[in-house]
Write the structure tokens for this entry.
Amino acid sequence: MNITEAMEARHAVRDFADQPIDAAALDELRAAVAAANAEGGLNIRLVHDETDAFGGCPTHYGRFRNVRWCLALIGRDAAAGDTADLDERAGYFGERLALTAVSLGLDTGWAVLHDVAEHDDFWHLEDGERMPAAIAFGHATRPGRPHRSKPVEELGAVEGGGTLADAPAWFVSALEAAQLAPSALGKQPFRFTLLADGQTVRAEALDGVQSEIGLGIAKLHMELGAAAAGHTIVW
């Protein structure tokens, strides 16, 4: 399974089994974390704990069980050479790691944790760092289920009042990939507009819970969907 196929296969889970993770898969995931940190100006940590990889931190939404592994998405609000918001970068690169994990046969679940600065035994936040979210991963006790998605007509538009029927196939393919993007409470608070030049896409976070994280996730899905149609998105 490649990372694009993983978009279709990925469904959020919160209940994990005790089944160990293959060492080769962990090595690939560690390499992907290193690449995400270098490219995104982040300090993502891969955390393992035999009791609770969330370090006892309460979750913003949903009850997780038996989380032994997680990705702590840590970074600074200003990264050298990158103007993207930390939450957006955490969403983009975190989802890239989640899809990598799925492509390796693992299951994942996004979580926003509270009181993260109080658990230095699991991760350490340097001055100026924060942790917008975490991703639990491992083997699920049961398969996840597809989440609800907005219609493509609500996710995307064409500048100047055109319809998606007039849009190029790659833009529709990108929006269909964005439909698969996870978001807080399944609200998908983001919108993409194809500008008049027919190449540039404007990405907007709408009002909603963790909308900037959701925007980052959806931008990755848009890029993967467009790439599957032979196009590279210009933001």
Observations:
- The domain at 152-228 is CATH 3.40.109 (NADH Oxidase).
- The CA atoms of residues 106 and 146 lie 16 Å apart.
- The first strand starts at residue 45 and ends at 48.
